């Protein structure tokens, strides 16, 4: 399965790079409109790296606490530190920046980055399993909404999965919102 996912990631990176070059259209506005229905709820977003679609406008517009992921150690669930525009940042590893200080939050809604997704609601991530572990942990405690955020061009026929992979509840792309049953 590792080799299958590795090949899928290579193709997904290329597709995302092409989509990124075309621009994200109204994707952030679609995301912000969806999140408006979750005002006051703790939200996890992410600070985009490389060719990831940019959720920052929606995160800034959110009415409620916003956190970004922090990787505490390999093969562990993520933690989320409260973030706001202009807060002091530091290196978070893996090419990311994280808030240098701030409260830890436990999000009920997560904006999840990805390389590819399919019509079943599965996503292909970077291979560390951080979001799968995190969603499993949070969902064991209470309802937790996983919102994939991607370019429509990142959709593939079928994401290779194993028993550990967690499904998204919905995906928001530059073409709109799709819920998964």
TrEMBL record:
Keywords: ATP-binding, Ligase, Magnesium, Metal-binding, Nucleotide-binding. SUPFAM superfamilies: NagB/RpiA/CoA transferase-like. Its cofactor is Mg(2+). This is 5-formyltetrahydrofolate cyclo-ligase. It comes from Pseudogemmobacter lacusdianii. GO terms for molecular function: 5-formyltetrahydrofolate cyclo-ligase activity. PANTHER family: ATPASE INHIBITOR/5-FORMYLTETRAHYDROFOLATE CYCLO-LIGASE, CHROMOSOME UNDETERMINED SCAFFOLD_24, WHOLE GENOME SHOTGUN SEQUENCE. Its EC number is 6.3.3.2. It catalyses: (6S)-5-formyl-5,6,7,8-tetrahydrofolate + ATP = (6R)-5,10-methenyltetrahydrofolate + ADP + phosphate. Gene3D superfamilies: NagB/RpiA/CoA transferase-like (3.40.50.10420). The lineage of its organism: Bacteria, Pseudomonadati, Pseudomonadota, Alphaproteobacteria, Rhodobacterales. It is an enzyme of class 6 (ligase). Belongs to the 5-formyltetrahydrofolate cyclo-ligase family.
């Amino acid at each position: 399965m590792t080799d299958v996912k590795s090949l899928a990631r290579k193709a997904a990176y290329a597709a995302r790079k092409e989509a990124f070059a075309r621009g994200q259209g109204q994707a952030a506005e679609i995301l912000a409109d969806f999140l408006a229905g979750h005002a006051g709820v703790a939200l996890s977003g992410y600070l985009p790296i490389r060719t990831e679609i940019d959720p920052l406008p929606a995160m800034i517009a959110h009415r409620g606490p916003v956190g970004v992921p922090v990787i505490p150690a390999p093969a562990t669930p993520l933690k989320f530190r409260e973030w706001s525009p202009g807060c002091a940042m530091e290196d978070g590893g893996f090419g990311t920046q994280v808030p240098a200080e701030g409260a830890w939050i436990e999000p009920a809604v997560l904006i999840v980055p990805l390389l590819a997704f399919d019509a079943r609601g599965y996503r292909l991530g970077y291979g560390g399993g951080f979001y799968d572990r995190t969603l499993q942990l949070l969902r064991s405690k209470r309802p937790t909404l996983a919102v994939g955020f991607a370019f429509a061009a990142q959709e593939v026929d079928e994401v290779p999965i194993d028993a550990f992979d967690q499904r998204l509840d919905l995906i928001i792309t530059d073409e709109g919102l799709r819920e998964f049953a």
